[in-house]
Design goal:
Layout lengths: L7 E4 L5 H12 L3 E6 L3 H13 L4 E5 L5 H15 L2 E6 L6 H4 L8 H11 L1 H10 L3 E12 L1 H4 L5 H21 L3 E8 L12 H9 L9 H12 L10 E4 L9
Parallel strand pairs: 1-2, 1-4, 2-3, 4-5, 5-6, 6-7
Helix pairs in contact: 1-10, 3-6, 5-8
C-alpha cells in the first residue's frame, strides 16, 4: 500500500530531472500523477510510457505556468479528468546557462523577469488556480534553493525568484491553514542539467564544499516531496525542508 494511494497530484515541470523524479515517486506511491510540461513533449511522453508499463496512473498536460490563461485551462482539464486534487508540486523553473552565468553588472531586468515569470509567477498562478480543486487536507509543495540563504555571484535572478518563493511559502501556509498545508523543499547541489553549465574545476569545488562528499540525486528530493504530500506530514505546514547534504550548514 502506497502513502499516496488514490490521491491526485499535479507536478509542474515534470518532463525530466527533479520534476520527473518527483512524478515517478508520486506514481509509485499510488497516486494518479499529472505530468505538466511546457516544451519537452518527448521527455514527458517517455515518462508516461514508463509509468504506463508499470501499470501506474499518469496524465500529460501541456501548459506554460507563466501564462495565466494556460494555467487556468490546465486546472480546468484537471477538474474534467479527476474532479479534484490532493497535491500540487510547484517544481517548474526557468533554466538558462546564459542568464545563470552572467555577473551582476551584465544582467538586465529582462533576465530577471524571464526567471521570475516561471519560478515565482508560475508558483503563484498554479497555487491560486489549484485552490478550488484541492480537497480539505490537501498539500502544496514549493521548490526553493539554499543560495537564498548564502547568496552567490551567479544565478542571481534565480536566487531572487527563489527567495520570493520562500517568503510566498510562509505566507501561503498562514493564509490557507487549516484546509491546505503549504511547505517547501530548499535544494542544494542536485545532479541535474546545471552541472553542464560549470567547469569541471568548479564542479569539484562545489562537491568539495558538501559534507556528504557528493551531489544530491533527484530521487532523494522526490522522497522528501512524497513525505510532504503524504499524511505522514499531516501536522507540518510552513516548513522549508533543506536537502543539501550539509552544504549550507554554515548559512544558519
Amino acid at each position: 500500500m502506497g502513502r499516496l494511494d488514490g490521491k491526485v497530484v499535479l507536478v509542474t515541470g515534470a518532463s525530466r530531472g527533479i520534476g520527473g523524479a518527483i512524478a515517478r515517486a508520486v506514481a509509485l506511491e499510488g497516486a494518479h500523477v499529472i505530468i505538466n510540461y511546457r516544451q519537452d513533449v518527448e521527455g514527458a511522453s517517455r515518462l508516461k510510457a514508463e509509468l504506463d508499463k508499470m501499470g501506474l496512473s499518469a496524465t500529460l498536460i501541456k501548459a506554460d505556468v507563466s501564462s495565466e490563461d494556460e494555467v487556468r485551462d490546465m486546472m480546468r482539464r484537471v477538474r474534467e479528468i479527476y474532479g479534484s486534487l490532493d497535491g500540487l508540486v510547484n517544481n517548474a523553473g526557468h533554466g538558462s546557462s546564459v542568464i545563470w552565468n552572467k555577473r551582476f553588472h551584465e544582467l538586465t531586468w529582462e533576465d530577471f523577469m524571464s526567471v521570475i515569470n516561471v519560478d515565482l509567477k508560475g508558483t503563484f498562478l498554479c497555487s491560486k488556480y489549484a485552490l478550488d480543486l484541492l480537497r480539505d487536507g490537501g498539500s502544496i509543495v514549493n521548490v526553493t534553493s539554499i543560495p537564498v540563504k548564502s547568496g552567490d555571484t551567479v544565478g542571481i535572478p534565480y536566487l531572487a525568484a527563489k527567495a520570493s518563493v520562500y517568503a510566498l511559502t510562509k505566507s501561503m501556509a498562514l493564509a490557507l491553514a487549516p484546509r491546505v498545508r503549504v511547505n517547501a523543499v530548499m535544494l542544494g547541489s542536485i545532479e541535474t542539467g546545471w552541472i553542464n553549465w560549470v567547469s569541471q574545476e568548479e564542479l569539484r569545488r562545489i562537491v568539495g564544499s558538501i559534507p556528504m562528499g557528493r551531489l544530491g540525486k533527484p530521487e532523494e528530493v522526490a522522497r522528501a516531496v512524497v513525505f510532504l504530500l503524504s499524511d505522514d506530514s499531516s501536522f507540518i505546514t510552513g516548513h522549508v525542508l533543506v536537502i543539501d547534504g550539509g552544504e549550507c550548514l554554515a548559512c544558519d
